[in-house]
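Tutorial, part two.
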Amino acid sequence: MLAVIALGSTIIGATTIAGLLTLYELRAAKDAAQSAGAIAAADTGLEYGLYMFFHPTSTLTLTLPAGESVVVTCYDAGNVPIPSSSCAYTNTSTVRIDARGTYGTANRMFELRLQ
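Running the prediction step on this input gives:
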């Protein structure tokens, strides 16, 4: 009788541990998908910032898949944000472009320094 209880307890413990490991794997998979979406948004934002840098008169608008968002910011040599409309090749004070992508709870940022 005691052996049956010990064996049953061991099986229940092993099942609980396996369940927790599966739960952690599912959470990691969800986080990885959100991270990939945030990276894609940040990459798109950086490409957009570069395009606007070389084509300042363009009326190009940034379109992202549902749930993704990006904020593109240009900075001058003094590390002061400048309006994105001034983020142009003709503005020689532009030295950095940041693109911060978000998808779900994941945030990723790419930075490009111009020298």
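The helical segments are 2-54. In part three we will examine how such features are distributed along the chain.
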